[in-house]
Amino acid sequence: MRISTELGDITRVDADAIVNASNSSLLGGGGVDGAIHAAAGPRLLEACRELRRTSLPGGLPVGDAVATPGFDLPARWVIHTVGPNRHAGETDPALLASCFARSLDVAAELGARSVAFPAVSAGVYGWAPDDVASVAVRAVRAWSAAPGADDVEDVRFVLFGEPLLAAFTRALAEG
């Protein structure tokens, strides 16, 4: 698996799947979540409402992931994951690592060969960029070493600011 970092707008990435740093409601929000909902168009919200109506009536749990079509995005799929919120006392790095691993599980189930991640939980959820980067890179590397993980060939961390890019580039170089 190739793992890389880049500065950019995840809503414009040419990948099979992009990961949305969602909230548990799946109904849109701020930051990456709001940008993805806006760029994907109103059918994304409709698909998320359908998930809430059917398979996820209580919302998506922290650390889990679920997919919808990408609709108006370049990506074929959006994989929604809910990161832990430090401000709400969710400080377990295993929950954060689960966001990346479960997103890759879903990507593999979909047949996605390329996946783009944002810095899940590094924004309004209060996690330090260096902590998110370290956990994310370790989780992706651990997932890629598991049997049957060769389906996903390319993982890109697409980051919206220089501090996040620097943190992820450092984490990638350290391992």
From TrEMBL:
Q: What Gene3D superfamilies does the database record attribute to this sequence?
A: Leucine Aminopeptidase, subunit E, domain 1
Q: Which residues form the Macro domain?
A: 1-175
**What parts of the sequence cross the membrane?**
none
Species annotation = Xylanimonas oleitrophica
Listed name of the protein: O-acetyl-ADP-ribose deacetylase
Q: Which InterPro entries does the annotation name?
A: Macro_dom, Macro_dom-like
Give the classification, highest ranks.
Bacteria, Bacillati, Actinomycetota, Actinomycetes, Micrococcales
Q: Which PROSITE patterns match?
A: MACRO
